[in-house]
Each structure stands twice: as C-alpha cells, then as structure tokens.
Design brief:
The protein is an alpha/beta fold and 355 residues long. The chain is built from 14 helices and 13 strands. It has 2 domains: 2-168 and 338-353, 3-Layer(aba) Sandwich (Rossmann fold); 177-325, Rossmann fold (3-Layer(aba) Sandwich), CATH 3.40.50.2000. Strands 3-2-1-4-5-6-7 form a 7-stranded parallel β-sheet, with helices on both faces. It has a 6-stranded parallel β-sheet with strand order 10-9-8-11-12-13. α7 crosses α11 (262-270). The chain binds uridine-diphosphate-N-acetylglucosamine.
Length: 355
C-alpha cells in the first residue's frame, strides 16, 4: 500500500512524526509531501530533525500569502505530484491551509483521502481553521477522530459512517518525548528559574491582527506577577513590528525568545508553573504534561482540557493574572486523548479500509 502524507505547518510535523514511525515499521510505502507553508528553520527543519521524521520526498516551497493565494498555489502544485504518485491513501493532518489544499487536490483526482484529527469544532466561523476542518471532513473518505467528542460532531453532521475513533497521535509523540527528556533540565534564558515561570505563545489571527488587542495582550503578559517566557511565532513578531508594540521590555515579567524545537518545548512546559496560549496543540500538551493552561480564546476545540479547570478560557485580560495564579486541580486527570498508541491505529485502519 502507498500512503502519501501532505504536511506544511509546524503542528502537522508533530502529528506526522508518530505516523511516519508507525509506517516505517511496515512494508507500506510512505511518501511525504511538504507544501512549504512554514519554511523558517525553527518552524520546520528542526521538527524533522528532532522528531526523526524522514526528509520530505517532495517540497513544494509555496511559502506565505493570503489564504486564497496560499491555498490555490498549493492546489496547483499538488496536482502533478498526486497524479504521478497515485497513492492508495492521501493522508491530511489537522486544519491548516495545507490540509484543505491537499484534500481538494486529492478528491478532484478521485484519490481516497483520510483526515487525521477529524471532527474538531470550535463553532467559531471567523477562524480560518474552522472552515478548513469542516470542508476537509465533508470531502474526505475516512475520518480519523481523536476523541469521543469529535466522533459526536461528525455524527451530527451526517458523517458517522466514515468515522473511526483512533485516539490522538499528539499524545503518542508528547509521551515519547516527555519520557526521553524528563530528567534533563530546560535551557532557559537568563532570569528564569525552573518551576517559577509560565510559557506563553500567541499566534492566532484574532489575537495578533488587531493592534489594540495585541498591544493589550503583550502588556498583560508583561504585567503578570510571574516571569513569562514568550516564544514568539513569526506572525507575532511581524505584527508587533508593524504596530510598534515592543516585545523587549526590560524590567517587566516578559522574556521573549524564538520558537522552541519540540523536545525543548516539552522540557520548558514540564519545568514551568503553567502555560498561557492560543495554540490548540499547546493547550493539550500542557494537559498531557500535567500543567495548568490559560487559553486566550473564546472557545477551544479540546474541550476535555477544561474539565476540573486544567485549562480555562480567558478573553478579559483583567482576569489573566488571577487565572495564572489559580490552584492546581486535586482530582486525578482522565485520559481523554488515548494511551499514546494512536499512530498504530491509524495504520491498521488505513489497511482495513483500503478500497
Ligand atoms: C498556521 C495555521 C494555524 C496553525 C499555525 C501553527 C492556517 C490557516 N493556519 O498559521 O492553524 O496553528 O500555522 O503555527 O493554515 N511566517 C514566517 N515563517 C514561517 C511561517 C510563517 O515568517 O516559516 C510568517 C509569515 O509572515 C506568514 C505568517 O507567519 O505570513 C503566517 O503564516 P501562515 O502559515 O500563513 O499561518 P500561521 O499563522 O503560521
């Protein structure tokens, strides 16, 4: 069987890692296509190296652009690749523009598409990712759902027959890396002490693209009563520069650094007091690593993290400090994201559902 994975953005490389490993243990052929949506070394290359992902077989080098231009350019570039490879499955991941382009290109060529991380919904139609997920789920032939909640969403949209619950492949990689780095101290910028800082990331359009909102978020982080390690996504840096918002604020709580490779991020979270973010993946990683998360969004797709208050949603920035300083829940966590063996499930479902 030939499986062709299409990836392009940072969270997709993380999801690809356990799938590539599980496929490498079989006789199946795995072709990796990188759209080039993310191209900075810190956003792409280090993930392939650290997570031991084979180098992409095809790199489309699409780069940045408006949603339409980026997605359309990917579509045009994917056509000849898919036509040449004619895989048994096209595997798409998550909810980025690379996911949608890969899906549309494949279904137009009548190639079977499997969507990994199907069924997530924020019910916020202002998010580009929400359109990408819904359109992908409705076009794909096989929906690999990470959670029971995702299965319910798909059933409610009439997609139950194409759905299989497989668990969450991000749990596979998170636990594997956690076990490898657990005893290593984190590399922290000067001024930060293990156990006393929070890790912060901000990159979503709703937080970065409005000057007033972004300025208020950076000011709130700088004013927190604990040191903040802000790992700056390129979009955050670009918007701050455009709006004249300083990320370098000596004397404040804020310590700004470059995005971290995956193992360093896991270590940074393991040794933190908690996380402040608008990233979907990091909310869940905080939960899996047993750290409190405060999410700067109006909703989350990973609703299981909200149980018992491991994760809380905050939009009113006056509430941020109180949220960050809340107590750790006493109840033991459940295991809504599976046991860390979802990637093997992906392979066996692709085998059994092959047309
Ligand atoms: C994309 C995904 C988002 C995911 C995020 C993870 C979509 C619609 N969004 O958002 O779901 O959570 O990836 O990071 O697909 N840039 C660089 N270097 C890079 C990549 C981006 O400088 O390697 C800058 C460019 O200015 C670019 C901007 O970041 O215009 C946004 O990048 P883009 O890939 O369009 O979306 P993300 O915000 O990264």
């Amino acid at each position: 069987m030939k499986i062709l994975s299409i990836v392009g953005a940072r969270p997709q490389f993380v999801k690809l890692a356990p799938v590539a490993e599980a496929l490498a243990a079989t006789t199946h052929t795995h072709v990796i296509v990188h759209t080039g949506q993310h191209y900075d070394a810190a956003m792409s290359d280090v993930f392939f190296a650290d997570l031991r992902i084979p180098a992409p077989d095809v790199h489309l080098a699409i780069g940045s652009g408006s949603h339409g231009v980026q997605t359309g350019t990917m579509l045009a570039a994917l056509d000849p690749v898919l036509d040449r490879e004619r895989p048994d499955w096209v595997l798409v991941y998550g909810d980025t523009n690379s996911t949608l382009a890969g899906t549309i290109a494949a279904v137009k060529l009548h190639l079977p598409v499997a969507h990994l991380e199907a069924g997530l919904r924020s019910f916020n139609r202002a998010m580009p990712e929400e359109h990408n997920r819904i359109l992908t789920d409705h076009a794909a032939d096989l929906l690999l759902a990470p959670t029971e909640v995702a299965v319910k969403h798909l059933a409610a949209e009439g997609l139950g027959e194409r759905t299989v619950l497989i668990g969450d492949v991000m749990t596979d990689v998170c636990f594997r890396v956690r076990d490898a780095v657990r005893d290593e101290p984190p590399h922290l910028p000067e001024g930060l002490t293990p156990g006393e800082y929070v890790v912060a990331t901000i990159h979503r359009a709703e937080n970065t693209d409005d000057a007033g909102r972004l300025g208020a978020i950076v000011a709130a982080l700088a004013g927190l009563p604990v040191p903040v390690l802000l790992l700056a996504h390129p979009r955050l840096r670009a918007r701050c520069q455009e709006f004249g918002i300083a990320l370098d604020r000596p004397g404040s709580s804020l310590v700004t650094a470059e995005p971290l490779p995956y193992p360093d991020m896991v270590r940074a979270v393991l040794h933190s007091r908690g996380v402040v973010t608008d990233s979907g993946g990091l909310q869940k990683e905080a939960f899996l690593l047993g750290r409190l998360c405060t999410t700067l969004r109006t909703e989350t797709e990973w609703v299981e993290t909200l149980d018992d208050g491991w994760n809380v949603l905050v939009t009113d920035l006056d509430r941020l400090a109180g949220a960050v300083e809340r107590a750790v829940p006493r109840n033991p966590q459940g295991t809504p994201y599976g046991d860390g063996h979802a990637a093997e499930q992906v392979v066996s479902v692709l085998e059994s559902r092959r047309r």
